[in-house]
């Protein structure tokens, strides 16, 4: 058992600045075999709490006991605690030490000084639990992010911990792989009695956990079962959190008088009553299901044929990463697509599907190894094509804001683009002011702020302002929502939607998840292994939800709900764009059953 | 264009299961040190010609493309060239000089050209051997080999294991930093900075723009890694008594390779002495 008694912790720099403690007067107990989820908006003290549990930080007041051992102890006791409490961080690249999988997993036991046979047994066991045996000898740099994350967990597991802390492990992975990862850790809790402490921003991940702790401003706001926590919808929203969509939906439908729904709905199955055997399945067919014929008739969409008059047109474009080295890899394979000015386009595919390479090509940062790339009907491969002009027209908001903010202050960073163009001071000032205001940051307030002291959401806004200040015709977002809490995601979504309104701006949104994309864009290109699989309008894309799920693309919650209910109600459509449409669909079925 | 990882080949291991890649790292290290020492000792063209033959055999065994190995040399060629010019110009022959051209303290002599060429050849061999070692040896093997060879030093109290861990981490960060620089360069290019333009001074000042964000992200990464290592009990049990999962086993090939290398080295030393 881990026991916290009145724990308070403050970072020394924050204490000087008069900022309240990161963790304030927390008391709680975590028992063996329990699965605990910790939620809270960015900066609510979750990460600090986990570092306290793992004895990486020591509380300034109060005490933490791990199996009776205080974390403030030194020497052998401290190492004993670290052995018992394993921690996995957000970004696997930051925590993997060795260069091959097997050495990485062995790192912990090697530090503990076990015999060779003991290390081998522990490594073998950890690899087996996380189904990594086939990858044992591979070099870590060759693995995908989700595999790296599994290796990181295996490395901790080889220490045979009693408590496993996961600090936002699903930030960098999505869809099916994230689900599998969570299933694995929950299995660990149930089979091996390891307590799992999982920090996340995704509410639907935690409905099957034993316990949910909600943090706000360094304190515990709520502590209970998912059922109890998600019943308090209004309070959660007040602290910038949310309930799973299915819970929200249950709430709405119950208010409309659906009697069979439990007060707090956690799974899609609870929305509709189970079918009685007397009711034959044919009786509930409301609409003819979207037939395969219908789909294939729609399939050869003309969107995929490059239209030379479009702002971007790719014709059989390929790109080989690290060409002429033993590590050469074809990141784009004969991609043909076109994007018209003023369109809002989604590029969706699992990690490693070539989205980022495609963005680099569109932004003029790399040239296709073969095939053609037209920008405003001009072939970019011809001599004399002005690449600088293309780059000045196309702005990119990269995945991590940290790698695109390079100046000390916000004002200086946003003016980076205008300064490169050597505009007048007054003009530059005007651009900075307009761009900052466009992203909802006050010019007077932010222009002299230090960039490193910004919050995650603010950084992302500054990064967008920096791109807007270049006055682009096209703006490309690469996975903009990664790492944001529900409030941050809502705000950024609103911002992108506003940008989309401006007439002559073309918006391209790349993501491994269809969530958000579906409500923003008018065309979606689905990518996998470097090729465009199909291109269509959002509704048609969603009709193929099942295939997308198999590709490891995360689906919107509405579609997930529809998809999981479909096994019982085959007539249910999966191409529901928003909550209202799903409600209407459910209502149709509900009316039929009753 | 903006793809650094293609050009930075430093510290890259190519796992192509060639005979060289499979060799025992301890033996490989000893051979490499022997050969590298040898190239700094050799001073006759004949010996280097024989050395080249040996390297060709080595190269065949590695199954690597020569172009790939030489590519990473490209940025240094200009430096080598400048060094060569300087050495020729400032060369002072021991005996009465036979100048081909002479002015003030600068001069070109046949002896000078020969001696300077020899230096370049020596550097090229050195570069080739070191690159070969890094391309055919994974970092784990390399560091395990060093640790194993350095074990006697550990016994007399030199913290060789800790030093090697420092090396492991430094090498681990090379590809990560390359990716990071690439990312920053892309972000700056996308906002209108042109790295391909301007004179040398302008280019260098543009690179300086990368430094601060690179250091910031570097320190952050090191901090997280440090926590991750401590959380997994690195540095526990008082000293640095780590045990290892891996065990080395000398194969027949390793013994043969070692004997061959020693033979070739002594032969070259003899040739070198006779040639003088």
From TrEMBL, chain A:
Keywords: ATP-binding, Cell membrane, Membrane, Nucleotide-binding, Translocase, Transport
Residue ranges constituting the ABC transporter domain according to the UniProt record: 2-242, 314-554
A GO CC annotation given for this chain: ATP-binding cassette (ABC) transporter complex
Molecular function GO terms recorded: ATP binding; ATP hydrolysis activity; ATPase-coupled transmembrane transporter activity
Superkingdom of the organism of origin: Bacteria
A Pfam cross-reference name: ABC_tran
Record-linked SMART domains: AAA
Gene3D superfamilies according to UniProt: P-loop containing nucleotide triphosphate hydrolases (3.40.50.300)
Record's subcellular location: Cell membrane
PROSITE patterns registered for this protein in UniProt: ABC_TRANSPORTER_1, ABC_TRANSPORTER_2
Main localization, broad class: membrane
Family: Belongs to the ABC transporter superfamily.
NCBIfam families, per database record: PRK13648.1
Protein name (record): ABC transporter ATP-binding protein
Provenance organism: Dictyobacter vulcani
Organism ancestry: Bacteria, Bacillati, Chloroflexota, Ktedonobacteria, Ktedonobacterales
Automatic annotation (TrEMBL), chain B:
Stretches that traverse the bilayer: 29-61, 73-91, 103-130, 156-178, 253-275
Keyword Acetylation: no
Principal localisation: membrane
Subcellular location: Membrane
Membrane topology, record value: Multi-pass membrane protein
Key word Transmembrane present: yes
Any one annotated GO CC term: plasma membrane
Pfam families from the UniProt entry: CbiQ
Superkingdom as given in the UniProt entry: Bacteria
CDD domains reported in the protein's UniProt record: EcfT (cd16914)
Keywords: Membrane, Transmembrane, Transmembrane helix
Protein name as annotated: Energy-coupling factor transporter transmembrane protein EcfT
Native organism: Dictyobacter vulcani
Classification of source organism: Bacteria, Bacillati, Chloroflexota, Ktedonobacteria, Ktedonobacterales
């Amino acid at each position: 058992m881990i026991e916290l008694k009145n724990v308070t912790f403050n970072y020394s720099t924050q204490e000087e600045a008069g900022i309240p403690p990161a963790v304030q007067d927390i008391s709680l107990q975590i028992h063996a075999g329990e699965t605990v989820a910790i939620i809270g908006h960015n900066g609510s003290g979750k990460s600090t709490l986990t570092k306290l549990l793992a004895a990486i930080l020591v509380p300034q007041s109060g005490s933490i006991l791990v199996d009776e051992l205080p974390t403030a102890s030194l020497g052998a006791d401290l190492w004993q605690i670290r052995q018992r409490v394993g921690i996995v961080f957000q970004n696997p690249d930051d925590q993997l030490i060795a260069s091959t999988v097997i050495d990485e997993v062995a790192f912990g036991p090697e530090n503990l000084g076990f015999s060779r046979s003991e290390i081998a047994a522990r490594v073998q066991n950890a690899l087996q639990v996380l189904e990594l045996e086939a990858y044992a000898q591979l070099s870590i740099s060759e693995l995908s992010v989700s595999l790296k994350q599994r290796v990181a967990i295996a490395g901790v597991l080889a220490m045979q911990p009693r408590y496993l802390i996961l600090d936002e492990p699903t930030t960098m992975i999505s869809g099916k792989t994230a689900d599998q990862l969570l299933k694995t850790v929950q299995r660990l809790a149930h089979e091996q009695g390891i307590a799992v402490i999982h920090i996340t921003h995704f509410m639907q991940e935690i409905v099957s956990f034993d316990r949910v702790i909600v943090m706000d401003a360094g304190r515990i706001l709520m502590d209970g079962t998912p059922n109890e926590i998600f019943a308090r919808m209004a309070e959660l929203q007040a602290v910038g959190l949310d309930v799973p969509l299915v819970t929200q939906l249950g709430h709405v439908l119950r208010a409309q008088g659906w009697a069979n729904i439990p007060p707090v709905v956690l799974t899609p199955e609870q929305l509709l009553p189970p079918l009685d055997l007397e009711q034959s399945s044919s009786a509930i067919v409301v609409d003819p299901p979207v037939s395969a014929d219908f789909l294939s008739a729609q399939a050869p969409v003309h969107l995929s044929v490059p239209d030379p008059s479009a702002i971007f047109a790719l014709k059989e474009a390929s790109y080989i990463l690290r060409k002429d080295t033993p590590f050469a890899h074809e990141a784009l394979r004969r991609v043909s697509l076109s994007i018209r000015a003023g369109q809002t386009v989604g590029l969706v595919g699992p990690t490693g599907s070539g989205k980022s390479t495609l963005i680099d090509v569109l932004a003029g940062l790399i040239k296709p190894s073969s095939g053609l790339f037209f920008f405003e009907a001009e072939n970019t491969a011809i001599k004399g094509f002005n690449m600088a002009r293309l780059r000045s027209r196309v702005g990119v908001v990269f995945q991590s804001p940290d790698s695109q903010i390079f100046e000390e202050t916000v004002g200086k960073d946003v003016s980076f683009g205008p300064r490169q163009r050597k505009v007048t001071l007054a003009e530059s000032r005007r651009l900075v002011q307009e761009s900052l205001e466009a992203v909802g940051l006050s010019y007077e307030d932010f222009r002299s702020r230090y960039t490193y002291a910004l919050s995650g959401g603010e950084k992302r806004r500054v990064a967008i302002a920096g791109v807007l200040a270049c006055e682009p015709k096209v703006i490309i977002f690469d996975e903009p929502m990664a790492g944001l809490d529900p409030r941050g995601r809502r705000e950024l979504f609103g911002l992108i939607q506003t940008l989309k309104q401006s007439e002559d701006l073309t918006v391209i949104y790349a993501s491994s998840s269809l969530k958000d994309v579906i409500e923003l864009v008018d065309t979606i290109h689905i990518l996998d292994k470097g090729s465009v699989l199909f291109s269509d309008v959002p509704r048609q894309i969603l009709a193929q939800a099942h295939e997308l799920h198999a590709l490891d693309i995360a689906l919107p919650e509405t579609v997930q709900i529809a998809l999981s209910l479909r096994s019982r109600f085959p007539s249910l459509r999966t191409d529901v764009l928003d909550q209202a449409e799903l409600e209407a669909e459910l209502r149709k079925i509900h009316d039929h059953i009753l | 264009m903006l793809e650094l990882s293609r050009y930075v080949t430093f510290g890259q291991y190519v796992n192509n299961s060639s005979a060289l890649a499979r060799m025992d790292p301890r033996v490989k290290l000893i051979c490499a040190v022997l050969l590298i020492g040898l190239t700094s000792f050799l001073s006759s063209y004949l010996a280097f010609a024989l050395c080249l033959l040996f390297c060709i055999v080595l190269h065949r065994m590695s199954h690597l493309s020569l172009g790939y190995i030489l590519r990473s040399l490209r940025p240094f060629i200009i430096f080598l060239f400048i060094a060569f010019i300087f050495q020729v110009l400032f060369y002072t022959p021991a005996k009465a000089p036979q100048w081909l051209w002479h002015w003030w303290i600068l001069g070109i002599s046949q002896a000078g050209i020969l001696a300077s060429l020899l230096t370049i050849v020596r550097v090229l061999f050195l570069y080739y051997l070191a690159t070969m070692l890094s391309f055919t040896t994974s970092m784990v093997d390399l560091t395990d080999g060093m640790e194993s060879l350095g074990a006697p030093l550990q016994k007399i109290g030199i913290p060789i294991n800790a030093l090697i861990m420092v090396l492991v981490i430094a090498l681990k960060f090379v590809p990560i930093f390359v990716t990071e620089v690439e990312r920053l360069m892309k972000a700056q290019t996308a906002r209108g900075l042109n790295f391909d333009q301007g004179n040398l001074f302008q280019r260098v000042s543009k690179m300086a723009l990368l430094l601060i964000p690179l250091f910031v992200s570097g320190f952050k990464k090191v901090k997280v890694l440090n926590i991750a290592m401590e959380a997994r009990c690195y540095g526990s049990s008082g000293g640095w008594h780590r045990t290892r999962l891996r065990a080395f086993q000398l194969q027949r090939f390793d013994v043969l390779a070692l004997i061959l290398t020693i033979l070739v080295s002594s032969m070259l030393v003899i040739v070198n002495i006779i040639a003088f």
